């Protein structure tokens, strides 16, 4: 048992108190039963689909009947006793589905990113990354031997770009922001060695950014890299964790939707979002796959996925590949358009100050719709009391001045649930008009942020 009142606990307590004083303390919470989900990343609601559940259970029963490997664990790392012909078959199937030469499974998308970036850049190589890239990529870069790690302004590719996708006139950028664009990095003074082909340059972006829900301009990025690095030493890596399953034919992802399979060097897939299960996979060449098997520490030194994880991934992909997810995708896209229209109608009806309640006028393409507000905890707690699970997103997950609640839509959401959420938002704005909305202090466990990226009361919102 740890000693009570030891010095280290005292240091930790001071750090936690400091975070609490800034309203930045994270806490674990649970979702009350019966809440309408507008928070999770399970965009297609696959885990609740009866067909997926039946397929998953059938695989478990079949495996148990054979008396084969344990259902409960894999027995070791893949380099020792944890590998199986089943895992290798799934890798080949997924790679073929995404029109890639090869694939390698990891226990999570975070492990995939850390493993990939931790070992791929060689001494002297450079990683050029979008300023809003996921924390897992930063963790991988810290472990890498890359000579430089250089950020560029979010989704800014060309010098002629006047603003990033996320920073339109509707999003009211706050404070000083990075203004270096990808083009200037690749062709400016620092780009001389890049252009000579003397070193590899890895350009990393996300397909869909989880906090703003915007899409990376992948076609423009590919054009820029190829034109500014004619030596072929520019290697684009796309994290498709939030775009797998919801973009491209049968959910193949944004890279496939844009026909960029041969122009993107590697893709990282995440199965914990739209796919409704767990795990990650790197799509790459067979040689890169062999290299990762030899050098990616998050693959080498961890126990491999157990059979139930493999079975859940297989069941989800079978559901996608067979076209059974198409009605879910159609419903989800309809909800995205209609929810956005209703949010704009709320803004028009109440005319709140931009810092209090703001939604981008640009129609979203992903299921993530941020509602910017200076009082995210108050707004989230109000919605949660009404049975609608949304989460406040605050600093340090997002920059100060860009706090928001994040409305995540799912194929399993009903139009009635969306109407109910709109009524809850409407009631909060009415309370603001009456002066009944206070400051955004600590809202307790219901109002904790997660990391991770304007009718009168009683008037029913219509879809």
> How many strands, which pairing sense, and closed or not: the largest β-sheet?
7 strands, mixed
User: How many extended strands?
Assistant: 12
Return the structural class: alpha/beta
CATH architecture annotation name of the largest domain: 3-Layer(aba) Sandwich
Low-confidence region ranges: 162-176, 442-463
CATH first level of the largest domain: Alpha Beta
Organism: Parathielavia hyrcaniae
GO biological process, one term: biotin biosynthetic process
Domain Aminotransferase class I/classII large: 37-425
Keywords: Pyridoxal phosphate, Transferase
Quick summary:
One of its GO terms (molecular function) is transferase activity. With 463 residues, the protein is an alpha/beta fold.
Could you name the key traits of this structure?
single chain, 463 residues, alpha/beta, Aspartate Aminotransferase, domain 2, Aspartate Aminotransferase, domain 1, 2 domains, 15 helices, globular
């Amino acid at each position: 048992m740890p000693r009570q009142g030891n010095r280290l606990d005292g240091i930790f307590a001071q750090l936690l108190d400091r975070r609490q004083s800034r309203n930045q303390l994270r806490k674990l919470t649970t979702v009350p039963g019966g809440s309408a989900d507008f928070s999770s990343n399970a965009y297609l609601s696959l885990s609740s689909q009866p067909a997926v559940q039946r397929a998953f259970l059938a695989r478990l029963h079949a495996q148990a009947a054979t008396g084969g490997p344990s259902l409960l664990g894999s027995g070791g790392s893949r380099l020792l006793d944890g590998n199986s012909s089943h895992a290798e078959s799934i890798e080949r199937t997924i790679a073929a589905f995404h029109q890639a030469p090869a694939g390698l499974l990891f226990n999570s998308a975070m492990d995939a990113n850390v493993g990939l970036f931790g070992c791929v850049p060689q001494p002297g190589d450079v990683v050029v990354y979008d300023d809003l890239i996921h924390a897992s990529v930063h963790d991988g870069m810290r472990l890498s031997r890359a000579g430089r790690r250089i950020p560029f302004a979010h989704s800014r590719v060309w010098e002629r770009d006047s603003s990033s996708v996320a920073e339109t006139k509707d999003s009211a950028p706050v404070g000083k922001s990075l203004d270096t664009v990808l083009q200037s990095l690749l062709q400016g003074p620092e780009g001389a060695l890049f252009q000579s082909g003397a070193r590899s340059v890895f350009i990393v972006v996300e397909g869909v950014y989880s906090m703003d829900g915007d899409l990376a301009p992948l076609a423009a990025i590919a054009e820029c890299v190829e034109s500014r690095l004619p030596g072929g030493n520019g290697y684009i890596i796309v994290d498709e964790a939030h775009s797998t399953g919801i973009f491209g034919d049968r959910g193949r992802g944004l890279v496939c939707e844009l026909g960029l399979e041969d122009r993107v060097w590697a893709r990282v897939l995440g199965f914990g979002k739209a796919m409704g299960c767990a795990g990650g996979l790197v799509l790459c060449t067979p040689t890169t796959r062999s290299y990762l098997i030899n050098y990616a520490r998050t693959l080498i030194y961890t126990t491999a996925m157990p059979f139930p994880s493999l079975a859940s991934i297989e069941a989800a992909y079978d559901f996608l590949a067979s076209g059974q997810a198409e009605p879910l995708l159609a419903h989800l896209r309809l909800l995205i358009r209609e929810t956005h229209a209703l949010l704009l109608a709320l803004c028009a009806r109440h005319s709140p100050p931009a810092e209090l309640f703001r939604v981008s006028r640009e129609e979203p393409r992903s299921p993530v719709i941020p509602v910017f507000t200076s009082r995210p905890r108050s707004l989230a707690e109000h919605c949660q009391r009404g049975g609608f699970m949304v989460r406040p997103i605050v600093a340090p997950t997002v920059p100060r001045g860009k706090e928001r609640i994040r409305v995540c839509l799912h194929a399993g959401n009903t139009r009635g649930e969306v109407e109910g959420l709109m009524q809850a938002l409407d009631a909060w704005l009415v309370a603001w008009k009456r002066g009944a909305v206070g400051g955004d202090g600590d809202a307790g466990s219901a109002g904790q942020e997660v990391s991770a990226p304007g009718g009168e009361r009683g008037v029913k919102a219509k879809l």
